[in-house]
Write the structure tokens for this entry.
Amino acid sequence: MHPTPGTSTDADGSPGPIASRSELLPGEPASVGRARRLVRKALDDAGRAEWAEAAELACSEVVSNAVLHAHTDVQLTIAVTDAGVRVEVHDFSPLLPLQRNYTEQATTGRGMALVAALTSEHGITDVGPGGKTVWFMVTGEPQEQSEDDLLAAWDDAEWDLDELLGDAPLDPGPADATPVRLLGMPPTLWLAARQHHDAIVRELVLYLAEHGPDQPEGLQVDVASTDLARATISTAVVAAVDEAQRQGTASRVLPAGHPGPLPDVPAVLDLELHVPEELRGAFATMQDTLDTAERLAAEGLLLSRPGLPEIVAVRDWACEQVTAQLAGVSPSRWPGADQEHFADEVVDRADEPDLQGWDVAAVRDADRGVVAADDANRIVAVSRPLAELLGWDPDDLVGRRVVALVPPRLREAHVAGFTRHLTTGEAHVLDVPLTLPVLRADGSEVEATFLVQKAPTDHGRTVYLAWIEPAPAG
């Protein structure tokens, strides 16, 4: 660390910093607290403690992002002038940031928008193969902000990565990188999987940091390699979706009138990745790491819920395609999320969730059409009027996944929307009347009116009630 207190003048005659500090911090969670303390000390030394609260919180978010996503050391630089404090956080990862649009209920993804809400200016510089610098400034008179004020500011904040990156050069990668094709990639499903991976990897990192040497033996985890592998795929998907939107070839994936926020995308993508030699094993590592995270989530050891089967399947397909093609195998297309085993998967009654505090009889004995599903998207109860409308026996539906009632063409959108809800907290369809087709047991469809409601249980799990009636003719 190199503190430099006192007023100075730069070579161009402008006022120099009153105090400045710079320190190389290791890429570990403890560095977040160290960075906060350095910011506070620099501002105290300069007599500018009024900027400390906003600068500390913004610094925490930027350093946390570097620790969680860059997996490198972090160079922290702080410069305090009469006008404000500038904080720079440089990591040494070649990965560019990707825009994430999550809500305030999400367990991840909102930090950089919070930085935008707290600071006067912010940006990204020095982008290249050797890393990047994220910076912000806090200036002016500090304002007292309640939690509601911060959330409102966060809603209005802008962190436009395209604008911030500007003409930053993209690393073309090694000349000897091997091309790999992902044919038929479902963009809606992958974008939902990406959000789930963001959340579950963050929780995995925090779990490992908390348990340290006491973590269970045999955990196959390499978060740094995992992030490099998944960023390789996600960067290609996001770029292809952006290009389709610019070209006008993207289309809405939800039925007309549906309030869900899923972006317009092409139906499928044929992607070409270029995998450098050093990442040849990273995609198998990604599978192992995410399998570990899914298992911990299933055991209730992470805040994130486990991924739905389609989310796990598209991840496995992509990783296995890369690994196989690097070994000389020809590419195989994504077989689709309407695969029969997804819809027909029935939960063993011994593995049914504990919904103590919630009475399934209220649904089972209802004289209207209603179905109840848990937060794993499994049917836990259904009324006889609804089962008969759809050509099922009520007992045969209980334990099946909700996609058994969703027409195949809408399954990816359903899985993506429900995953987004679990990951981000967004709830656009709750308590909103909808009209959608429902799949019957014989493969035919019936147009129906929906009203979906959320019913928490006494043990923190959630039950979703869908009131379903035949839509009026005409």
Observations:
- The chain has 14 helices and twelve strands.
- The chain has three domains: 19-165, 178-336, 351-470.
- The two ends are 74 Å apart (CA to CA).
- The mean pLDDT is 83.
